[in-house]
Design a protein that fits this description.
Layout (H helix, E strand, L loop, with lengths): L1 H36 L70 H5 L49 E2 L9 E3 L7 H5 L4 E9 L5 E8 L5 H9 L2 E2 L2 E3 L2 E3 L1 E9 L4
Length: about 260
């Protein structure tokens, strides 16, 4: 009997404790849910009624007129051009080497005047006994002396033509037409020196004349006048000799 009463009391305590435990756990769970569901308290925004002032930090000081240099650009590396392989070119046609220049042909005056090695007179050169203005009617003619003749020159027959040289008597005009201007030369107002080489025979006749230095419109007329003239024979050591003689005649129009 006592045993049954004790068991009933023990069973009642166990049931009551179980309910209290369930109730406490349920309350704690509900409290956790409520706390986690509440929004966090946000502090109220502070009210600002005054003006807003912004302070900027001072920049670097730059001198007046100074311009900041542009940033240097990186130079692009120049790629070297590949060199083409050198090839030896062999010409298919070989040009001949230029020939040596031909020697200048001698002046015809020099080649044809081998019989007289003296220089040709220039315009304006005086002649002993001649007219200072070159009077074409003067009977004194100019010639060129040639030295160095052989000592036995006088033993010749007098028929050979030799250059007029030293020790010879100069020829003097005896007769013949005067040297005159042609109409064409007078209109063209031709002036200057006329040079011709002729042969004066031992009789004083003039032949085989040729022009060394001529004048326009005057060559034929002057040669014709010379061929019709007669001079005193040129003598050497007392003998008349045929000589190659150079006539230098100066023509000048009257002023």
């Amino acid at each position: 009997m006592f045993k049954s009463v004790i068991e009933r009391q023990r069973a009642g305590r166990l049931g009551l404790g179980l309910w209290w435990s369930v109730a406490i756990h349920a309350g704690l769970f509900g409290a956790v849910l409520v706390i986690s569901a509440r929004p966090a308290d946000v502090p109220p925004e502070a009210e600002f009624n005054g003006p807003l002032v912004l302070k900027l930090a001072p920049g670097p000081q730059v001198a007046k007129g100074y311009t900041a240099p542009a940033p240097a650009q990186a130079k692009q590396a120049v790629q070297p051009k590949p060199r083409k392989p050198r090839r030896d070119v062999i010409p298919t046609q070989i040009q001949p080497l230029p020939a040596d220049p031909q020697p200048a042909q001698p002046d015809p005056v020099d080649t044809t005047s081998n019989t007289n090695n003296a220089p040709v007179g220039e315009p304006g050169e005086g002649v002993a006994g001649g007219h200072p203005d070159g009077d074409p009617n003067s009977n004194v003619i100019s010639g060129t002396l040639i030295t160095g003749l052989p000592s036995d020159f006088g033993a010749g027959t007098g028929e050979d033509v030799v250059p007029f040289g030293g020790g010879m008597t100069p020829p003097v005009l005896m007769e013949g037409p005067p040297l005159e201007y042609t109409d064409q030369a007078r209109v063209a107002r031709v002036e200057g020196t006329f040079i011709a080489k002729c042969v004066i025979t031992r009789e004083g006749l003039v032949r085989d004349c040729r022009v060394i230095k001529g004048l326009a419109h005057m060559n034929d007329e002057t040669l014709n006048s010379l061929h019709h003239r007669r001079y005193t024979p040129v003598t050497f050591q007392g003998r008349a000799t045929s000589v190659s003689y150079v006539f230098t005649l100066r023509f000048k129009l009257p002023r």
